Amino acid sequence: WYVGGMKETDKCVLSNQNQNQNRIELKSNPIVHVPPKRMKIYNSEELFEMDLKVEELVICSGSCNDLYKLDLRRYKSLQSIEIGNDCFESVQVFKICELNRLKTLIIGENSFNHKIKCDDDENMGSFTILNCESLESIEIAENSFRGYNGEFYMFNLPQLQSIKIGIIGSRASSFPHFSFHIRSNDMILYI
After folding, report:
1. How would you write the chain as a 3-class SS string?
2. What is the pLDDT of residue 163?
3. Judging by DSSP bridges, how do beta strands 6-7 and 2-3 pair with one another?
4. Residue 150: its pLDDT value, please?
5. Checking DSSP bridges between strand 181-183 and strand 188-190, what pairing results, if any?
6. How many of the other CB atoms lie within 10 Å of CB of 125?
7. CA–CA separation, 71 vs 187, rounded Å?
8. How would you label 61-92 residue by residue, b for 16+ Cβ within 10 Å and e otherwise?
9. pLDDT tens, 57-97?
10. Beta-sheet pairing, 188-190 with 162-165
11. Residue 109 phi, psi (nearest 5)
């Protein structure tokens, strides 16, 4: 059997003879873990096992309904958070703090609606977004945070340009029991 005018067996012999003269050293490259930039989460275990360097977080609809508290401050690389419909039904404490790369926060319909009731209905559920220097927009769909009647704070969000909560003219309600306190370096807004 001939390849390029030379038998394949001759090539092997030839390469074996030259092996000691032209020794090639192969260096192995270390395996480098590259975290995914976008992460889709289907349950709370995945959320807590997620790489800290994730930039885009997507919580799929119907997920993470067993958590009491949502605090994402350890994920410093986050640039966007998108939470689907019917998520975090047991969460009573919502905190987005010190995420200086975060630009957008989107929350779907019927999320953060308490399924676990507590004895003190006067102070049930807190919503806090603070010290997110790059946050530009917040969008919260209909009927989310419906059972919350505790604290609502937004503070030190210097790039915030847009807050959209629900749909104008809709009978659905988000935050029906809140008085809003939104503070920035240049403004204080009470709604």
Report:
1. CEECCEEHHHHHHHHHHHCCCCCCCCCCCCCCCCCCCEEEECCHHHHHHCCCCCCEEEECCCCCCCCCEEECCCCCCCCEEEECCCCCCCCCEEEEECCCCCCEEEECCCCCCCCCCCCCHHHCCEEEEECCCCCCEEEECCCCCCCCCCCEEEECCCCCCEEEECCCCCCCCCCCCCCCEEECCCCEEEC
2. 87
3. antiparallel
4. 73
5. antiparallel
6. 23
7. 26
8. eebbeebeebebeebebbbbbbbbbbbbbbbb
9. 999 999 999 999 999 999 999 999 999 999 999 998 999 99
10. unpaired
11. -70, 150
CA 152 to chain centre: 21
Distance CA 146, CA 125 (A): 10
- What does the pLDDT read at residue 188? 44
Closest CA to 95 of 45, 52, 130, 61: 130
Q: Which two tokens stand for residue 90?
A: 């047991």
Q: Tell me the two tokens of residue 93.
A: 């404490």
Four-CA torsion 178, 101, 55, 183, nearest 10 degrees: 0
To 10 degrees, the CA torsion angle through 98, 83, 177, 157? Answer: 30
Q: Each residue of 116-149: pLDDT tens digit?
A: 454 445 547 888 999 999 999 999 998 888 777 7
